[in-house]
C-alpha cells in the first residue's frame, strides 16, 4: 500500500507547487516584458536612423501623392540625423528649450534634382526636429539657377522635366447654354476650381496635362488653355510674408541661384529678401540693416558666405501648394529623408482603401 502523507507534508507540497507556478508566471511575464522592451528599442532605433512612416495630409503633391497616402520614408538615403531633442517616444511631444548637439550620419546619396523629400518646415518657430514635416519635390539643388515664366519652371535655362502627376489650373471654355458636369470632370481626373460665368461659359479646372488633353476633345468644350496670372498682378499685397516679394506672383519668378555652401553673395536692398532667412534664421547671425548697408555680427559688410547647402522645393499640385515660391529655401539641416513606398492609402471621400496604390514604389 502507498504510504499516506501527513497533513504537514501535503501542505509543503502544495506550497512548492504554488511557488513553482508563481516563478514560471513571473518568468513568462519577464520574457514578455523583455521582448516588448527590445521591440520598443528596436522600433525607436529604426525610426530614428533608418525608416519612418508618414501620412499625406494635404493635396499639395497630387496626383503624384494623394491625400491619405501612408508612406515609408528612408532616412538612410541622405543620412540620418542624430537626436536633436528629448521627447516622448512615438509622439511630437518634446522638452521645450533643450536642443541636443547633433550631427548627420553618412547616407547613400545626396539629394538629387526632382527627388521627393520629407523635410522640416523651415519657417516654423521650433527646434528643427520639432517643426512640422512637409513633403515636396526638390526641383532645384544647390547651385541651380531657377526661374518661372508663365508657370513654366526653368532649371539652368532649360525647361524642367514634366512629370505625369503634376497638376495645374486650366481655363476651359464651353459652348453657349451648356453646363460642364462637375461629376464628369471628376471622373476624368480633374476638379472644377471655379465657374467664372455662373453655371456655364468658362471654368477653371485643376488637372494634369493628360486630363487637359482629354477634356479638350469633348464636344461641349471649345478651348482649353493654361491659366496664368499676368506678370503685372501682385498677389503678395494680400500676404504678411513672402519670400518672393520683388517678384510679381508665383506664376513668374526672376532667375535666382539656389544657395550652396561656400557661395559668397553680395547683399543689396533689392536682394536681401532672398537671403534674410538664411543669414538670420538658419545660420544664426546678428544683422543690422540701414537700407543697403549691412552690419553682420558687428562687422560692416555687403558680402556673406553661405554656410550650408539649400534646396528649392515645389508641390506637384502647382496651384495648390505653398512651397519655396512663397517661403524660400529648405536648409540641408532640415532634410529628413526620401519618400520610398506607399504602404497604404485611404480615400476619405469613399471610406475605402485605394487598393491600386498599395505597396507602390514612389518614382522621381
Automatic annotation (TrEMBL):
Bias category Basic and acidic residues: which stretches? 1-11
Q: Superkingdom of the source?
A: Bacteria
Which region ranges are annotated with the description Disordered?
1-21
EC assignment: 3.4.21.89
- Where the record annotates domain Peptidase S26, the positions are 29-241, 263-344
Give the UniProt subcellular location, in the record's own words. Membrane
Classification via SUPFAM superfamilies: LexA/Signal peptidase
Alphabetically sorted, this entry's keywords are: Hydrolase, Kinase, Protease, Transferase
A Gene Ontology molecular-function term? kinase activity
Offer one Pfam family short name for this entry: Peptidase_S26
Main subcellular localisation: membrane
Q: How does it sit in the membrane?
A: Single-pass type II membrane protein
Acetylation among keywords: no
InterPro entries the UniProt entry points to: LexA/Signal_pep-like_sf, Pept_S26A_signal_pept_1, Pept_S26A_signal_pept_1_CS, Pept_S26A_signal_pept_1_Lys-AS, Peptidase_S26
Q: What family is this protein classified in?
A: Belongs to the peptidase S26 family.
The record's section on PANTHER family has: CHLOROPLAST PROCESSING PEPTIDASE, SIGNAL PEPTIDASE I
Q: Which NCBIfam families match?
A: sigpep_I_bact (TIGR02227)
What is the recorded name of this protein?
A: Signal peptidase I
Q: What is the lineage of its organism?
A: Bacteria, Pseudomonadati, Balneolota, Balneolia, Balneolales
